[in-house]
Amino acid sequence: MTRTIAVIPGDGIGPEVVASARTVLDALDRRHGLDLGYETFDWSCRRYAETGAMMPADGLETLSRFDAILLGAVGWPGVPDHVSLWGLLIPIRRAFRQYVNLRPIRVFDGVGSPLRTAEPGAVDLVVVRENVEGEYSEIGGRLNRGFPDEFAVQESVFTRAGVTRIADYAFELARGRRGYVTSATKSNGIVHTLPFWDEVVAERAERFPDVRWDQEHIDALAAKIVLQPDRFDVVVASNLFGDILSDLAAAVAGSIGVAPSANIDPTGTHPSMFEPVHGSAPDIAGRGLANPVGTLWSCVLMLERLGHEKAAAELMTAITTTLRDPRTRTPDVGGSASTADVTAALVELVAGG
Ligand code: NAI
Ligand code: MG
């Protein structure tokens, strides 16, 4: 059965890294008979500038027919970032109930971490970020605009169902890894939502007696990820905490250019979306310098999710191999290769492997 992927290259380096990914996926497909079909959509800030909308009115309906979504990056100077975010990414995450945002981080051999303590191979953690509720809610408002007593209120939303399912996902994931979950909290300062988060996580933990777990306040946790990144396995966090921790962890790994992410609807009712963590990088767009690894690692997560574990593992091995050699690394990770050079090396590795 052909599985179909909606491809949204987006803006800036988005089309460059997505083209690289398509080339490598095609090589994998030839070898493994993955039977993947693609359709490409030009939804982007460019489209917004021309039509006033990031995507057509029936965009979500169109996407719902696909098995997965592969996204490059959106955002361009001149279009406010909240337009690109709320006009495309957030509607997709929410309409398709992609309540898990998965962000794995590794320190690769060859890619220097800015931390002395981060040994290649030793740092291997996954941030499991709650992706549809929490602090990123539209509930709230602003009153008395322009007056001295102007104020803004924004509510956080934590539901039992929402915390339960993200905790379960994290514990389940840890089972297949090193069996250790850290829950990010701040229940000493935020006195309603986060004690509730703690309670529900503790309740769910009881169902996973084989998984070790503890909780850390977000401030202390941020410090520990810097000081001892190899201590962590799965870190589960609310929407805001997870957003911050995953960028922090990506920085520990050496470059935002290698960091992948998956927005997953674990029920499989809706398509999941795979995208690099980085943005459209206007400063290097069009120069052939973009690191395609973040997108390709996202493709590894996509292939796993589509049931192509063997192809996924081969692609991950090929990525690790290219990162070891400066001739097949882009400048952001201390190499001299172009996007095309890295792509060619990966094609050769997955075709010959
Ligand atoms: P950015 O991630 O685009 O760039 C930050 C820095 O990292 C830049 O110096 C860039 O050159 C470098 N970089 C990023 N990806 C790279 C790669 N693959 N290879 C080599 N170097 C890379 O973040 P920035 O500059 O804050 O945002 C630029 C635009 O992207 C904005 O419009 C922003 O809203 C958007 N954005 C979109 C995201 C998405 O589509 N999911 C995520 C983050 C930002
Ligand atoms: Mg972020």
Automatic annotation (TrEMBL):
Protein name: D-malate dehydrogenase (decarboxylating)
Enzyme class, UniProt record, top EC level: oxidoreductase
Domain of life: Bacteria
Cofactors that this protein relies on: Mg(2+); Mn(2+)
Gene3D superfamilies: Isopropylmalate Dehydrogenase
EC numbers for this chain: 1.1.1.83
Keywords per UniProt: Manganese, Metal-binding, NAD, Oxidoreductase
Domain Isopropylmalate dehydrogenase-like: 4-346
Keyword DNA-binding: no
